[in-house]
Structures are given as structure tokens and as C-alpha cells.
Design goal:
Helix content: 40-55%
CATH superfamily: Aldolase class I
CATH topology: TIM Barrel
Radius of gyration: 17 Å
Number of strands: 8
Oligomer: single chain
CATH architecture: Alpha-Beta Barrel
Largest sheet: 8 strands, parallel, barrel
């Protein structure tokens, strides 16, 4: 049985005081919640503060980063390494988000390098895949996801793959208010699991948790979680308010 994982991607939002306020409000709301793993992924500047604040959660709420570079150290201005993320308490890192691919030009191959490096530093990758509206309308959804997924997991072992989290985020649904309907999301995520089975075997594929992301809200998360292959959500805008994210976590059990 796969334990659902609900992750908050705050993107470029919040200050130190706002982070402290969020955690103070959020933790009591989920204190008695079991059967779901919760992760908060704030901007780099807030990782330390969030980690300290989440210490009161006693492991119930994990800390994740939104990105990392493939190198351990060096002349890479503006980048952050895996050891740096571990040092502030991160257990997860989001890699290959569509905004990183589209805005910052990250290739499938670079994302795969980052995934491999994340494992060497004890970080669990949340590997994002997903098609644009143009690709979807051209019937390329499964082909795009296959390409991004196989590049992302190239070179990792089946044992590493067991702990992988994949986030299927149709690009056209991110931040637009247009969520993918549950039938299509289930079919696409089932196809992703099939690719994992081809690569690593069915037993490993059955262990991998696959999230849906894209305009997830408290009023639609339960419908996604009712699908057999959907194991959680990567939540953007609706994770910025403590009550909203807590409601999603509760419905995501």
C-alpha cells in the first residue's frame, strides 16, 4: 500500500514572518492526521526557518527544496547544491518542474543528472513531467511524459526508483484554474506507471508514488485521490494558505 504524499510548492512566495505564521497555523490543523505524508517546499531563503519551525512537527511534516544544481560546490553563482539542502534538513527536492524547463531552459538530460545527484546526497526527488496544451492537442501526452520520465530516471537503480516520487503536472493546468479531469489524470498516470514497469519491473513500479499537480484545491483533491494510481498531489497556489493546504492534506488520506 502506497502512502500518499502531499507536497506544497510555494514557488517564489512568502517572507520569514509569513513562513513562521503559516507553520504556526498549519501544524495544529494536521497534528492528529495520519496515513498521509506532508512536505513543504519553500524558496531557498526560507528553508532554514521552515526547517526550524517544522521541528515541532516531530517528523510529521517534511521539508523539501524547489530545485538544486548537479554539482556539489564550485563557481556556480546563484545555485544551491544537494549537501546544502541536506544541511538545512531537506528530505525532498522538486526537479524538472515545467517552469524550470520552460523559463530556465532545463533539458531532460540535465534533470536526469540532478535526479542521480539527489540520490547520492540522500534526497528523494519529486520528478515532474507533463505536456503543454499544444502537445496535448496533438495527442502527444504519453510520448512527452515517456521522454521526460525515461530521461529523468536514466542511470538510477531499481532500489533508488522505489523511493522516487513522480509528479504529473500538465503544463496547461498549472496556475490556470483548469484542472485535468480525474479520468484523464488517472489514465495518464497509469501510463506513467507502465513506463516505470518497463524500465524497473512491475514490483518497483507499484511502489513508486505518482502525484497529480495542476490547480489542485480542497474541493477537488478527493476526486483525484479516489483514483487507483494517484498517490497524492503537488500543490501550488492552494498551498499558500495554511487552512487550504491542511484541508487538502486531510482529504488526501
Amino acid at each position: 500500500m502506497r502512502t500518499p504524499v502531499i507536497a506544497a510548492n510555494w514557488k517564489m512566495h512568502k517572507t520569514l514572518s509569513e513562513t513562521a505564521g503559516f507553520v504556526k497555523e498549519f501544524l495544529p490543523l494536521v497534528r492528529d492526521l495520519d496515513g498521509v505524508e506532508m512536505v513543504i517546499c519553500p524558496p531557498f531563503t526560507l528553508l532554514g526557518a521552515a526547517g526550524w519551525a517544522l521541528a515541532d512537527a516531530k517528523g510529521k511534516v517534511g521539508l523539501g527544496a524547489q530545485n538544486m544544481y548537479k554539482e556539489v560546490q564550485g563557481a556556480f553563482t546563484g545555485e544551491v547544491s544537494g549537501p546544502m539542502l541536506k544541511d538545512v534538513g531537506c528530505g525532498y527536492v522538486i526537479l524538472g518542474h515545467s517552469e524550470r524547463r520552460a523559463i530556465f531552459g532545463e533539458s531532460d538530460e540535465l534533470v536526469g543528472e540532478k535526479v542521480r545527484v539527489a540520490y547520492t546526497h540522500g534526497l528523494i526527488p519529486i520528478l515532474c513531467v507533463g505536456e503543454t496544451l499544444q502537445e496535448r492537442e496533438a495527442g502527444q501526452t504519453d510520448a512527452v511524459n515517456r521522454r521526460q520520465l525515461l530521461a529523468g530516471v536514466a542511470g538510477i537503480t531499481p532500489e533508488q526508483a522505489r523511493s522516487l516520487v513522480v509528479a504529473y503536472e500538465p503544463v496547461w493546468a498549472i496556475g490556470t484554474g483548469r484542472n485535468c479531469n480525474t479520468t484523464d489524470a488517472q489514465a495518464t498516470i497509469a501510463a506513467i506507471r507502465t513506463v516505470l514497469a518497463e524500465k524497473f519491473g512491475q514490483e518497483v513500479a507499484d511502489a513508486v508514488r505518482i502525484q497529480y499537480g495542476g490547480s489542485v484545491k480542497p474541493n477537488n483533491i478527493a476526486d483525484y485521490m479516489a483514483q487507483p494510481d494517484i498517490d497524492g498531489a503537488l500543490v501550488g497556489g492552494a498551498s499558500l494558505e495554511a487552512a487550504s493546504f491542511a484541508a487538502i492534506c486531510k482529504a488526501g488520506k
